[in-house]
TrEMBL record:
Pfam families: APH. This is Thiamine kinase-like enzyme. One of its GO terms (molecular function) is ethanolamine kinase activity. GO terms for biological process: phosphatidylethanolamine biosynthetic process. GO terms for cellular component: cytoplasm. Keywords: Kinase, Transferase. Residues 21-235 form the Aminoglycoside phosphotransferase domain. The keyword Kinase applies.
Length: 292
């Protein structure tokens, strides 16, 4: 008889009393569970390496520990192959509307900058680099090999990626989260937390900023406010152009991530709809970039 996820969690051997295990909704890469052990709560993330998405659980573990040491993320309680147990944060996952609120954005931008400046100070082991243009090229090869229904789009994607990589230079390098979806921010009523370090690694800060804006559908004025707050200076035309290139690259990567997930993921999620949504966002952003 095949063990269920709940069986695997129950057998971890770290619990002190009777446990209650409930799935957490919303994950599109991992399977997440809320475990109540006596009066204490934990989040259990189940997931092995995902080579097609460049996800290494060893890197995720190292980044999670570093982010906790930096004060951004909950503590790692236990880990073993395929399992990560974290302290539970009793907080509200944000939604895009929350992120766009000027008062919330004023809290988030310093948090992102703090991540970029401080998590690497606590990171141990081999450091990963998350280079979106390499990811796009690798995704294109995977989609071609897998006979994706989107195969005809791949030559144009590769051409666009090359143009964007040239336009986004020069590159500063920081330690990035690289997946700034609204739900990866938690508000506990007192402070913000940043969670889920699957894609963490060294990158240009403009990738995180572009992802923050594109994932949460910022207006042009909100993008300007974000950039001015992050860099603590007016936005030059040169910086805005580089930023727009990285925002387009972020959207292209998210689109192709979903295309790859259509043929490689077994999680119950409508990846086809997610592909369509992100492809439309990418096309709008790239058209705006070309016209700027």
């Amino acid at each position: 008889m095949t063990a269920t996820p709940e069986d695997k969690i129950q057998a971890l051997g770290i619990w002190r009393g009777p446990t209650d295990i409930a799935p957490l909704v919303g994950g599109i890469t991992n399977r997440n569970y809320l475990v109540t052990d006596s009066s204490r709560r934990f989040v259990v993330r189940l997931g092995t390496d995902i080579p097609v998405h460049h996800i290494s659980r060893a890197n995720e573990l190292a980044a999670s520990r570093a982010a906790h040491a930096a004060g951004l993320s909950p503590a790692v309680v236990h880990s073993e192959p395929g399992v990560l147990v974290l302290d539970y944060i009793d907080g509200k996952p944000l939604i895009a509307e929350d992120i766009r609120d000027p008062l919330m954005l004023a809290r988030i931008v310093p948090l992102v900058r703090f991540c970029h400046q401080n998590v690497a100070k606590h990171f141990r082991g081999a450091g990963a680099i998350f280079w979106v243009f390499h990811v796009v090229r690798d995704y294109a090869a995977l989609l071609e090999e897998g006979g994706s229904r989107h195969e005809t789009l791949l030559p144009s994607f590769l051409d666009v990626a090359e143009r964007l990589e040239r336009a986004a230079r020069p590159f500063d390098i920081v330690f990035g989260h690289n997946d700034l979806l609204a739900g990866n921010f938690l508000d506990d009523g007192t402070r913000l937390w940043l969670i889920d370090w699957d894609y963490a690694g060294f990158n240009t800060p403009l990738f995180d900023l572009g992802g923050l804006a594109s994932n949460n559908e910022f207006s042009e004025s909100q993008e300007t406010a974000m950039l001015e707050a992050y860099f603590e200076a007016p936005v030059s035309d040169e910086l805005r152009r580089r930023y727009q290139a990285m925002k387009c690259a972020s959207l292209l990567r998210e689109t192709m991530w979903s295309m790859v997930s259509e043929i490689h993921s077994d999680i119950d999620f409508d990846y086809s709809a997610y592909t369509s949504e992100n492809l439309a966002r990418f096309e709008r952003a790239y058209q705006s970039f070309r016209n700027s």
